Amino acid sequence: MKAAVIVFPGSNCDRDVAVALERVAGTKPLMLWHRETEVPSDLDLIVVPGGFSYGDYLRSGAMAAHSPVMAGVKAAADKGVRVLGICNGFQILTESHLLPGALMRNRDLKFICKDVHLTVESADSDFTRGYADGQVVRYPVAHHDGNFFADDETLAAIEDAGQVAFRYCQPDGTVDADANINGSRNNIAGLFNRDRTVLGLMPHPERLIDQHLGGTDGVPMFKSLLEALS
Amino acid sequence: MKAKVHVTLKPGVLDPQGKAVSHALDALGFTGVEDVRQGKYIEVDLAETDPAKAREAVDRMCRELLANTVIENYTVEIEG
Q1: Contact A107/B14, CB-based, under 8 Å?
Q2: CB-CB under 8 Å, B64 with A105
Q3: Would the pLDDT of B18 be above 90?
Q4: Which residues participate directly in catalysis (chain A) (predicted)?
Q5: How confident is residue B42, by pLDDT bands cut at 50, 70 and 90?
Q6: What pLDDT does residue A50 have?
Q7: B55: which residues sit within 8 A by CB, 6+ positions away?
Q8: Predicted confidence band at A160 (pLDDT cuts at 50, 70, 90)?
Q9: Could you tell me which residues come within 8 angstroms of residue B49 by beta carbon, excluding any fewer than 6 positions away?
Q10: Which domains does chain B show, CATH number per domain?
């Protein structure tokens, strides 16, 4: 699996992702600076990491979506290269229109930094095959703008096409309003594109790859990718 | 010339910041505030001297960057 991690000014999870990929895949990913105009053509996976790219100016992810490297990322995604956007990466993927909807300020206006429970809505993707349908996992979140919004028509299309990857839930897997930490429509925490070759999610799988860091629920995601793309 | 751009949330899109401001106004004793919607105001100075061309350019800027048309509407005012 040949992977690259995009690095923007203000990214702060790029190295965590690199460690996770190296741990699981055994090889270091390529780190691609935002000014790169060429994205290598032999990549299997591109990760758009979390952080505060360009200081979240204008809207979270808005500036990064128009940075030189993203044109190459979009072209690669169009060719079927797997793209994983985590947290700010998810915001960048919606601003780039690689994923539908938008991520708005959290309903209660607060930055949320804690562990949350998620249901795996579909294990039928290269990102989630290591989990089981309906499995409950625990990932950390750390965001201010994670409130997923899409209009009624778009939301219905997302649900009909089975594009929801993760939903915020109770520890027992119940998806309800109390488990909805940030006001996201339909408790959506993570979303695929129609072909399930692009995944964006607010929680951080790369932060849970070692018992010393509090758990290993993130490992199956990277293992799934390695198995699918090797 | 100068372009004055207002970016506002589309009707139906929840505005938690507007809601918080509305509650704060209420707490300060300003009665009769029915709703508050918060938006952005952006001024763009342009070298262009033709108002029609300026409007066209700023409209494109709004669609491509200044507004996220998934959730926001915008209006453009051109001043000579």
Answers
A1: yes
A2: no
A3: yes
A4: 87, 204, 206
A5: very high
A6: 97
A7: B3, B76, B78
A8: very high
A9: B1
A10: 2-79 (3.30.1280.10)
Pairing of strands A3-7, A30-33: parallel
pLDDT value for A228: 96
Q: Is the pLDDT of residue A20 over 90?
A: yes
Work out how many CB contacts closer than 8 A connect A with B: 38
SS3 (DSSP) at A19: helix
**Inter-axis angle of helices A219-229 and A14-25, nearest 10:** 60
Is pLDDT at A26 greater than 90 in this prediction? no
Model pTM?
0.95
Measured between alpha carbons, how far is residue B62 from residues A71, A115, B15, B41 in Å? 19, 37, 20, 12
Task: Specify the higher pLDDT residue, B12 or A91.
Answer: A91
Nearest to A149 among B20, B64, B71 (CB): B71
The residues, ordered by sequence, that sit 6+ positions from B72 with a Cβ below 8 Å of its Cβ are B7, B8, B9, B10, B13, B39
CA neighbor of A128 nearest in space, from A81, A160, A82: A82
Average pLDDT value for residue range B58-75: 97
Q: Classify the phi-psi angles of A38: left when phi > 0, otherwise alpha if psi is within -120 to 50, otherwise beta.
A: beta
Picking from A8, A5, A1, A24, the residue whose alpha carbon sits closest to that of residue A223 is A24
Closest alpha carbon within chain A to B10: A151
- Enumerate domains of chain A plus CATH numbers: 3-229 (3.40.50.880)
**Active site members of A:** 87, 204, 206
